[in-house]
């Protein structure tokens, strides 16, 4: 069930999505509340589970991670044991930054960021060595047109 949010809660969440490093003072000024009222609201949003940990967005290109690959996986196996092995294999690869079970022609989708095609091939080989997959189709991203957008509030 969606949480009820008022204008100040939405403003607070939007400001944090854009810049989680804002000082308490700047955050309060930006949304039009006192620092104490802002802190109480932020604390309440955290308690309700709407605000998790804070992170920093890094530039993959600047870090030498210029290749983004969307990997689509189809399997004939749907047991709990197989899924546990597959999940363990995927999450053990730090280059897999997103991992979804999906509906449609494929069963799973992975977003992989890495340095180049050779590095991606090593990731692919490591995954298929650990768990049996039926079909693996990879799509190389040519351009990130809209990446890591804020949630619509």
Notes on the structure:
The chain has 153 residues and is an alpha+beta fold. It has two domains: 7-48, Winged helix-like DNA-binding domain superfamily/Winged helix DNA-binding domain (Arc Repressor Mutant, subunit A, Orthogonal Bundle), CATH 1.10.10.10; 61-140, Alpha-Beta Plaits, CATH 3.30.70.920. 39% of the residues lie in helices and 18% in strands. It has helices at residues 7-18, 24-31, 35-47, 80-91, 117-130; strands spanning 67-74, 96-101, 108-114, 135-140. Helix 1 (7-18) crosses helix 2 (24-31) and helix 2 crosses helix 3 (35-47). The chain starts with 6 loop residues before the first helix and ends in a 13-residue tail after the last strand. The mean pLDDT is 94.
In short:
The chain is α+β, with helices and mostly antiparallel strands and 153 residues long. Helices cover 39% and strands 18% of the residues. The chain folds into 2 domains: 7-48, Arc Repressor Mutant, subunit A, CATH 1.10.10.10; 61-140, Alpha-Beta Plaits (2-Layer Sandwich).
Helical residues, percent: 25-40%
Q: Tell me the strand percentage band.
A: 15-25%
How does CATH name the architecture of the largest domain?
2-Layer Sandwich
Secondary-structure-derived class: alpha+beta
Query: Strand order within the widest sheet?
Result: 2-3-1-4
Main sheet attributes: strand count, strand direction, barrel closure? 4 strands, antiparallel
Low-confidence stretches: none
Question: What order do the helices and strands follow?
Answer: HHHEHEEHE
How large is the count of helical segments? 5
- The number of distinct β-strands equals 4
Q: Which value, in Å, is the CA radius of gyration?
A: 20 Å
Text of the CATH class of the largest domain: Alpha Beta
Mean pLDDT: 94
CATH topology heading of the largest domain: Alpha-Beta Plaits
State the end-to-end distance: 15 Å
Quick one: CATH superfamily of the largest domain?
A: Lrp/AsnC effector binding domain/regulation of amino acid metabolism (RAM) domain
The gross shape turns out to be elongated
Return the domain count. 2
């Amino acid at each position: 069930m969606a949480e009820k949010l008022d204008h100040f809660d939405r403003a607070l969440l939007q400001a944090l999505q854009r810049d989680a490093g804002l000082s308490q003072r700047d955050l309060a000024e930006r949304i039009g509340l006192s620092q104490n009222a802002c802190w109480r609201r932020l604390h309440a949003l955290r308690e309700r589970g709407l605000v998790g940990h804070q992170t920093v967005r890094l530039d993959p290109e600047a870090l030498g991670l210029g290749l983004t690959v969307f990997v689509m996986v189809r399997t004939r196996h749907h047991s709990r044991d197989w899924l546990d092995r597959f999940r363990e294999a995927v999450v053990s690869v730090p280059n897999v930054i997103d991992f979804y079970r999906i509906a449609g022609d494929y069963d799973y989708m992975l977003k992989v960021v890495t340095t180049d095609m050779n590095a991606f091939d090593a990731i692919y080989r490591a995954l298929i060595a650990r768990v049996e997959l039926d079909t693996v189709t990879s799509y190389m991203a040519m351009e990130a047109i809209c990446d890591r957008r804020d949630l619509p509030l």
